[in-house]
Design a protein that fits this description.
heterodimer; A: alpha+beta; B: alpha+beta; 21% strand
């Protein structure tokens, strides 16, 4: 069974998201910062009459933030009745994936976001990761996110202090 | 010929049915009150009779409605309840406490059935056990248990009920005769209907049958079966409404009882047949089958526009859509305003300047019109807060029962109007507060007696307007909150420092902490330490706030402040660093200019002198971690009130006053303290709307 997917990259890894979940792909412009939000929330954007929070997936996966470049894209996705924007390194491919060929994530696989992996897919030697985004941004996991955030912001503060000191 | 739009039909049914169910519950509770207060005399007995009649009508209408949508269980059940009420009307059955409970239970089951239709699972409710229980209650009627099949009325019982009235077989005979001419109608009448018809005739009411065929043309000119029904209800009581289907043709028959004969010419849209009865002095309409002439065109002299009959039910979603469109226009207008300076520059020559002035004038007019449209739409959305208050008596009664407490519920100001959406959001918080008040606040009758209070506790719900806000108070005269005990527990749980004082605002925050409870064991009603958090969050999501006042031994009072409407606000746009924010104007008491040298640093915070006194201040750039290169020479302060105390939010610059469209966001990633929502000023950029009180909260704490 083939299904349409959009491929996007975060820190050299390729992820796939079902195209039904993607409202639009756009540029990351005119973002407004949300004070005191979790560090992976970049800000908000106005998309088709709605105010949508933008999540930086790099940061969400625990990596350093990277400066945006010409390839950086905004993926506006629908999760239930939520709309979320994902800041990704690039989003350029539209493919059909045969869902029967999706394999469970290998035990040995380590790396950012691995706990949210639903499966992996091999497409001509390329490894494509299927992430359960609904779970990644589930408000039920919010407290977890908040503790994550507290740790990372603490370490960020320490870094800053170290630098300024 | 048009088809009946099935979904519209069902929607109408759902709305009407739930209205009637609400009315039933309300009337039963009012009746119960007359029982417990033991009021006697003519007025109260007339009141009781009216209540019973209204209850009867509601059950009856429900039966008709259910029949129209083919909902057999609801039809059967309403029919049975209606029969019980008929017994009450005939004074065969006494409407006592037990029966009120039974009827309330029945209404509850009907509600479940109706809810089932709403959720498209109508088969979920089994009414049999209830019907059997009802049967037992009817034991004194020597009701034959073999006639358990509901929907059927035992003939012997019918006879019994009729014997109480003056026997008048002749009336029945003439009735049957009249009906025989309308086989369509007759074959749709069951024995219960016939009984009602007879009863109506015996009371000397006039009977009419109205035949109505819906059509696209009629519908286009605003005539449909619903407004015909409403019009008929103005004139009398609809005893029966039957859809008659012949091939693809649908015809509705309404059987109407009225005190005097109805003027058939008032109903040109329907075929009207007089079936006799009514007061003598009214002119009699010849009852004849030949009167099947096509409906004559409406004559203006007879056009009636009764207030209730001209009302339209509108789906809230449609109003939301309308409001959203108005909001889009407001945004479009601000885009135009943003272009005005450029237009002014482009057309600066004397001969072209009028282009700018004309445009400016138009934009200004547009603003006025938009405000008018907005207000009109908002007015349409406003509903009396009674819509939520009306749910309370039943809940309070149940709680009083289950806790064994005596509670009197007082409601005031139910006529104050508020946005429909807010009314809906208010229900759960109010229910929660009422539950808390009854479970924890109000003492048992013995405790109250010992404390020298009246044994009956009072729960007061009061709505009142101030400025552009609505204040809802939920007050009980119970034991109050043991602040010291809460403080100790909070210290124990490590929530506050041992030396910390507990202000009433803090108390509320502590009570809202999930899992926090001073109760040794939770009850079903409340005490599980959840709920208050949800209440606060729900209120915050709609721009509301809550305050608490409690006096030990005397009671607790919650104040809920709500905006009357949500969508569009006047806001002060401010700048801090390079970031813009909007502060709703209604949150700001006063705007002041601040000379930074006047700011006094104290140990825990900052103060500025203000009118012989001083105010605590909090800087937006600190709270929101805003980068700032250089210190401005002049600062601005927005004075607001939090927990009845004033404090100042300091910003760099005032940008202006704008009308903003609130885009609420309940997304957890966005829902931060001090942020109410977002808006867009016309350039596509989002700016955040500041929720002033939470930001000022810290200043007030520091001042302590």
């Amino acid at each position: 069974m083939e299904e349409p997917y959009i491929l996007f990259k975060v820190a050299d890894a390729t992820y796939a998201i079902h195209s039904d979940l993607v409202q639009q792909v756009g540029m990351l412009e005119n973002m407004t910062r949300i004070p005191n939000a979790p560090n992976f929330v970049e800000g908000v954007l106005y998309v088709r009459g709605k105010v949508v929070p933008i999540v930086n997936l790099r940061v969400r996966f625990g990596m350093e933030k990277a400066a945006y470049d010409v390839y950086s894209r905004l993926l506006v996705i629908t999760l239930g009745n939520r709309s979320l924007g994902l800041a990704v390194d690039s989003a350029r491919e539209f493919v059909y994936l045969d869902l029967d060929l999706v394999q469970p994530p290998p035990e040995s696989l380590a790396g950012p976001g691995v706990e949210y992996l639903e499966g992996v897919y091999l497409m001509d030697d390329r490894l494509i990761l299927l992430v359960n985004l609904a779970r990644l941004f589930d408000p039920q996991e919010r407290r977890q996110l908040e503790t994550d955030f507290e740790h990372s912001s603490e370490s960020a503060n320490i870094e800053q202090e170290e630098r300024s000191g | 010929m048009s088809n009946i739009p099935q979904q519209d039909f069902i929607d109408n049914f759902l709305e009407e049915a739930s209205d009637h169910l609400k009315a039933i519950k309300r009337n039963l509770l009012v009746f119960e009150e007359t029982l417990t207060s033991g009021a006697s005399g003519l007025t109260s007995s007339i009141g009781r009779v009216n209540l019973i009649n209204e209850l009867f009508r509601s059950f009856h209408t429900l039966k008709g409605l259910s029949g129209m949508v083919g909902l057999r269980p609801a039809e059967e059940l309403s029919h049975r309840l209606e029969s019980v009420l008929r017994g009450v009307q005939n004074t065969q059955i006494t409407l006592n406490q037990e029966l009120i409970d039974t009827l309330l239970e029945g209404a509850g089951i009907l509600e479940q059935i109706v809810q089932g239709v709403k959720n498209s699972e109508p088969e979920a409710v089994n009414i049999q056990p209830y019907l059997e229980a009802l049967e037992e209650l009817d034991g004194q009627d020597q009701r034959n248990s073999s006639s358990a099949s509901p929907g059927q009325v035992d003939p012997s019982r019918e006879a019994a009920s009729l014997k109480k009235k003056k026997p008048s077989g002749t009336v029945e005979d003439s009735l049957d005769q009249a009906f025989d001419e309308y086989p369509d109608l007759t074959k749709n009448l069951d024995s219960a209907d016939r009984e009602i018809i007879r009863a109506a005739r015996q009371e000397g009411l006039a009977l009419h049958a109205f035949f109505f065929s819906p059509s696209a043309e009629k519908s286009a000119s605003g005539v449909n079966v619903n407004n015909l029904r409403e019009k008929l209800q103005q004139k009398g009581m609809i005893l029966k409404s039957v859809p008659l289907i012949k091939g693809s043709q649908v015809r509705f028959v309404f059987l109407v009882a009225s005190p005097s004969p109805i003027r058939c010419e008032d109903f040109p849209e329907a075929e009207c047949v007089f079936l006799g009865g009514g007061k003598e002095e009214a002119h009699a309409q010849p009852a004849s089958a030949e009167e099947k002439a096509p409906a004559p065109p409406a004559r203006s002299a007879h056009i009636q526009t009764p207030a209730a009959g001209s009302a339209v039910r509108v789906d809230l979603e449609r109003l939301d859509e309308l409001m959203r469109l108005v909001s889009e226009l407001v945004v479009d207008r601000s885009r135009m305003i943003a272009f005005l300076p450029q237009v002014k520059r482009t057309y600066s020559s004397p001969e072209e300047r009028h282009i700018y002035t004309e445009l400016e004038k138009t934009v200004e007019n547009m603003g006025r019109h938009l405000r008018d449209i907005r207000q009109a739409v908002m007015r349409t959305r406003m509903v009396p807060i009674a819509q939520v208050f009306n749910h309370m008596p039943l809940a309070v009664r149940d709680l009083a029962r289950s806790t064994g407490k005596e509670i009197r519920l007082e409601m005031k100001g139910e006529n104050n109007e508020i946005d429909k959406m807010l009314v809906e959001k208010l229900l759960d918080p109010l229910l929660h507060l009422a539950r808390n008040a009854i479970t924890h606040g109000i003492e048992t009758p013995e405790e109250r007696k010992a404390a020298g209070k009246p044994t009956t506790g009072t729960l007061t719900l009061q709505a009142s307007m101030y400025g552009d806000k609505l204040l809802v108070e939920v007050a009980d005269d119970g034991r109050g909150i043991d602040t010291e005990r809460v403080r100790k527990k909070a210290v124990e749980d490590g929530i506050i420092r041992p030396e910390g004082e507990l202000s009433s605002a803090d108390l509320l925050q502590v009570l809202a902490i999930p899992g926090f409870t001073t109760m040794d064991k939770a009850t079903l009603g409340a005490g599980r330490g959840i709920g208050m958090e949800v209440v606060l969050e729900t209120l915050k999501a709609v721009g509301g706030q809550m305050e608490l006042e409690t006096i030990q031994g005397q009671g607790t009072r919650f104040f809920i402040h709500l905006p009357l409407t949500l969508t569009i606000l006047n806001a002060i746009v401010v700048r801090s660093g390079e970031e813009l924010f909007a502060v709703p104007q209604h949150m700001v008491d006063e705007v002041i200019q601040i000379d930074p040298t006047e700011i006094v640093r104290i140990e825990s915070g900052e103060l500025i002198p203000h009118r012989e006194s001083s105010l605590a201040l909090v800087r937006l750039k600190d709270k929101f971690k805003i980068k700032q290169e250089k210190q401005p020479h002049v600062l601005y302060g927005l004075i607001g009130t939090e927990n009845k105390r004033q404090a100042v939010l300091v910003v760099d610059k005032l940008v202006g006053l704008r009308e903003i469209v609130v885009r609420p966001s309940s997304d957890p990633f966005f829902n931060q303290p001090g942020v109410l929502g977002a808006t867009e000023l016309g350039d596509g950029r989002v700016i955040l709307i500041i929720d002033l009180p939470p930001l000022l909260h810290e200043a007030n704490i520091l001042e302590e």
